[in-house]
Predict the 3D structure of the following.
Amino acid sequence: MDKRKYLIVLWILSLVVFNGCFVAQSKKGTINNTPNPLNRLNSNTVLIAAHRGGYENDYKDKAPENSVVNIKNAVSKGFDVYETDLQRTKDGVFVIVHDQTIERETDGHGEVKNITLAELKKLKKRYTNGVTSQEPVATFEEFLQHGKNRITFKVDMKPGIQAYFKEIVSLVKKHKMMDSVLFRVEYKEADFFSKYVNEGNPYSENLLMFMVDSKQQVDFIEKTFSPLSIQVNIGSKNPWAQSLEVIKYAASKDILVETHVIGNEKQWGSLVHAGVRMLHSQTPLKTLDYLRSINKHK
C-alpha cells in the first residue's frame, strides 16, 4: 500500500473511532449534544437535593419554601438539586405548591384545583413559623425561567397531574431545559410513561426518576427507559440491608442513585459507601456539612 492510500485508510478509521466514541457518550448524559449537569460529576461527588428548596432558615433568609426567591437562596447555599412540587389550578396553570390545600403555605384557603391563577397570585406565602412573607405563589414557568442554568429541578407531580404530562414536558422543552428538569415518579406508573415514550413524545434519559424497591425493578426500568437516575426507597417497608444491596446493584449499572436522608450520620455514610450519589434531604444544610466533612462535596 502506498503512502497516500495508507493515509486515507487511517483517516477513515479515525472517523469511525471518533463517531463511535461520540455515540457512546451521547447514549447517557447528553440530550441533543447538550451536556447533562447531573453527569458532570466525578465519582467522589454526592449531590444534595433540597426538599422544597430547603427551608431550615426560611424566615432569616426571607425565602419561603417553593418560592422563586428561594431558588437563588438554594444556589447560594450550594445545593445541587431543587426538589419541588407541581399542581394545577382551576384554569389549567401549573403552579408550585406542596399541599393539596393552601392554608399552611399561604394566607389563603381552599384546594389548588379549585382556585384560579389570578386568585392565587393575590396570596402571599408563609414561612414555617407561620409569619406571612411578601412572596407570591410561583408558576412552574416562573421556576423554569429563574432556575435555568442555575440549578437542576426535581419535580414531584401531585395526584391528578400525571394526566397532563405532555403539556408539562412541553413547557420544559419550550424553555430548553430537557437536560435540567427531572420528574420523580412511582414504579407502578411505568406503563403510563412507557406509552408516553413509545408514542414519540419529547424524552431524555434525564426526564424520569423512578422510585424502586428491588433489583428486578431496577432491571425493568433500565431496560425500558435507560434512565440517568433512579431512586431507591428506604424506609420502614424496606429492610436496610436489602435497600443497600439494591443501591449497590443500581450503581453498578452506572445509574445515578438517589435516596432520602434518614437516620444518623453513620447510616448516611453507609448509603454513600453503597453508591448513593444524590441525597434528598429535609435538612440540606446539615447534610451538606456532613458530605463536606467526608470530602464528598465541595
